[in-house]
Design goal:
Helices cover 21% and strands 25% of the residues. A hairpin with a 7-residue loop joins strand 30 and strand 31.
């Protein structure tokens, strides 16, 4: 083959080869002309090219220029199915299909919804979609690639199926949608690809697919064609979820960083070890730090580059589905951290995707996040908003996830967040509220709750923004729950005080009840509180190891009984001393020590009591579910209160007494809301390593002695740094106590 001199190359072919042609299908494929049917194909470096038609006729093509071959089948008045027969340097003729004979794989309705920013299942049309078509020459298998890049001058798909040669597969721009598309026959699941984008600035960049549902394992950055073959086995869970309301149900959350819970485990491994462990402890939910693909492991997943892909570090997307499925089968819900507020600047990902700011706001005063060195999404752009709203729904629908915890909501709500005067732009009304981001959060929440009944969205919001958990039709943000950061900060400050000084800081504990019912709250003891020099949870309290362990036990009982759902980061459930580090496993060896084993066993007992007593969760967000007995015992550093299961306060009830002082309270009288017998359901002093005698299961008959605004009361002992739960005792309804059995060993994550 003699190359055509450059001066004789037709302009359209030259633009095609240079990666500047926006409509390659207008040039390539089959087209009816006056003399017949023209076939034109792109096969750079081929030695010879022929075409075989569905009627068996074979047509030899002539080389036009730069790897473009064509010929006319004379007398033809209609198009036909055909295959391309290519001879390369090996001298063997290879049969191939032609991408440029296929119509667009996106329909007009899809394109309209994308343009309007209202395609709620965006992941089903953009990205890489495995397709199958029937035709006269047999079924065709392949993958359609679609990407939104509205200001690109040209886009080509490259991958292991074309030796990463951009000349082979230029894509077409569909109308004014900004969407580029190409169906490539023969490409299936597992193929690795990227997009080669000639940007508006005329610079060619290689980009991962923003809609990729699978990626290479970091540090590799390419996208992978994915087709799920997973069969779910959580039907019972999903039916129950759709019929329930998680906001007024039990929610005890175990927060997990998958890479360091126990290093080296895959999704499949975690589906055994993590599921068994969490099930044994009795948590109702797990919350995973972001599983979406991210290039830098120590970011813990909060700098996302693959919003639609579970990280490949632990396996394939179907492996993650299996983990969720197994958790559901064990009766455990799954919440994922979701990061719609910002994204990293990595050149292979979303930043300057089509040569100019696209996903990020073009003005750095809105498009840059100074704290994290990242970009902020352009929330006002319809297509970007659609990308994020659909992404939230994607995890809930495609992976059966039960909830999303939205990271750093405060950074989204305020235009001046972490910015000095002059570094931010006011909204159209001159205010600091980020109206477009507010709209995005409202739309994402409303869409999620509409499409997926029974799920929950949770806001990590650290300010006093009103109505975070109010519905969107009432003007709220539409979240189901909000992290109570004020409670967390005040409580940890209190625990850091020496017990003798806590009497002077008593208001740090009681203040939370001034606003506990203003929102639907989660009480978070999260990863953020046990890293970056803050120390572990147990080390936040002063004193000896014995006192720290006792304080931890009392605090956990306080956490489980305070209004609001509770969240505990991994390792805190057995009193890990070392600060959390993402690069190593938890200190599982501590479970061999009685003191830490007993903390673990306490958490297990707390979860059992919590599940069995609806007073601890049914009215979490209603003042009718809480009553102070004594909020003012600052000299004794003691709190006492009642939780109720119903507004009439006639059903299930739990009385809690928490002593954060260093002295025991002997003969401590506490009011109870009704007559009869009251049983000690929990005494944390009995969970120490020394085997201190516990009052657990002791039954007290309420005296007709009014106390703490109650008509009845009981007298008990409250050990130093301990907590006690009392519940109504109805002996006629309870079975005879069985002979005591040895305490079971905690579930071993290594088993």
């Amino acid at each position: 083959m003699t190359p055509t001199p450059p001066g004789e190359v037709p302009g359209a072919i030259l633009a095609l080869i240079q990666g500047r042609h926006q409509q390659p299908h207008d040039l390539l494929g089959q087209h009816l002309e006056e003399d017949g049917l023209r076939i034109r194909v792109l096969r750079p470096m081929a030695g010879a090219v022929r075409v075989r038609f569905e009627d068996g006729e074979i047509l030899a093509l002539a080389h036009e220029a730069q790897g473009v071959w064509s010929a006319v089948r004379e007398g033809m008045a209609h198009t036909m199915d055909y295959r391309v027969l290519v001879t390369w340097g090996d001298g063997i003729e290879h049969e191939q299909d032609d991408p440029y004979r296929f119509a667009p794989t996106l329909g007009e309705i899809d394109l309209h919804l994308i343009g309007e920013g209202r395609h709620e299942q965006l992941w089903t049309v953009l990205g890489a979609q495995v397709q199958r078509y029937s035709g006269p020459m047999g079924e065709v298998h392949g993958t359609s690639f679609s990407v939104w890049a509205p200001r690109a001058k040209a886009v080509r798909v490259i991958g292991d199926f074309n030796d990463w040669d951009g000349r082979v597969h230029p894509m077409r721009l569909i109308g004014t949608s900004g969407v580029w598309e190409l169906f490539v026959p023969g490409v299936g699941a597992g193929a690795v690809y990227k997009y080669e984008i000639r940007g508006a600035d005329d610079v060619v960049r290689t980009k991962a697919d923003p809609m990729a549902r699978r990626t290479e394992c970091p540090p590799n950055t390419a996208s992978v064609v994915d087709e799920s073959g997973y069969t779910w086995s959580d039907t019972a869970w999903m039916e129950q979820r759709a019929a329930s309301n998680p906001h007024d149900g039990p929610m005890s959350i175990y927060e997990v960083h998958l890479g360091s819970w126990r290093q080296g485990l895959s999704y499949a491994d975690l589906a055994e070890h993590l599921v068994n462990y969490v099930s044994d402890l009795g948590f109702t939910h797990v919350e995973f730090l972001p599983v979406m693909e991210h290039p830098y492991g120590p970011s813990w997943g909060y700098q996302v580059t693959g919003y639609f892909a579970p990280t490949a570090r632990f396996g394939a997307p179907d492996d993650f589905r299996y983990l969720v499925d197994r958790l559901h089968q064990a009766g455990i819900g799954v919440i994922l951290d979701w990061v719609p507020g910002h994204f990293p600047r990595d050149a292979f990902a979303l930043a300057r995707f089509d040569g100019l700011p696209l996903y990020e706001h073009p003005d750095p005063r809105r498009g840059d996040q100074p704290d994290w060195g990242t970009h902020v999404f352009d929330f006002g752009r319809l297509e970007v908003r659609n990308f994020l709203v659909a992404n939230a729904t994607y995890w809930l629908e495609e992976f059966h996830v039960d909830g999303l915890r939205v990271d750093a909501v405060a950074s989204m709500l305020y235009l001046d967040y972490s910015r000095k005067p002059g570094e931010w732009i006011p909204n159209v009304y001159g205010g600091r509220e980020h109206l477009e981001a507010i709209g995005l959060l409202q739309e994402a929440n409303a869409t999620a709750y509409k499409r997926v009944p029974g799920i929950v969205t949770v806001a990590e919001e650290s300010t006093s923004w009103p109505g975070v958990t109010r519905t969107t039709d009432e003007g709220g943000l539409g979240f189901g729950l909000k992290w109570n950061m004020g409670w967390m900060n005040d409580t940890l400050r209190y625990l850091a005080e020496d017990p003798i000084n806590r009497q002077y800081h008593h208001n740090l504990l009681t203040f939370s009840l001034m606003y506990a019912f203003s929102e639907n709250f989660v009480l978070p003891i999260s990863h953020d509180e046990v890293v970056h020099g803050k120390g572990s949870l147990i080390n936040k309290a002063p004193g000896s190891d014995e006192n720290r362990l006792a304080t931890l036990r009392a605090f956990l009982a306080y956490l489980w009984s305070h209004p609001g759902k509770q969240l505990l980061f991994m390792g805190s459930e057995f009193g890990q001393y070392a600060e959390w580090a993402d690069g190593r496993s938890l200190d599982w060896w501590l479970l061999d020590q009685p003191a830490h084993y007993r903390v673990h066993n306490l958490v297990k007992e707390l979860n059992r009591i919590y599940r069995e007593n609806s007073a601890l969760w049914a009215l979490d967000s209603s003042p009718a579910g809480f009553q102070w007995l004594d909020a003012d015992d600052n000299h004794g550093s003691t709190l006492s209160y009642v939780r109720y299961a119903d507004a009439a306060r006639e059903g299930d009830a739990v009385v809690t007494v928490v002593n954060f002082s260093g002295s025991a309270h002997e003969g401590f009288r506490v009011g109870v809301p009704r007559a009869g017998q009251w049983r000690v359901a929990l005494d944390t002093s009995g969970f120490d390593a020394a085997g201190t005698p516990s009052q657990a299961d002791l039954v007290f008959t309420a005296e007709a002695t009014g106390w703490q605004d109650q008509a009845h009361s009981v007298v008990l002992r409250v050990a130093a740094l301990s907590a006690i739960y009392l519940v109504p005792h109805e002996p006629d309804l309870e079975p005879e106590p069985a002979d005591p059995e040895p305490e079971p060993e905690p579930a071993d994550p290594d088993a």
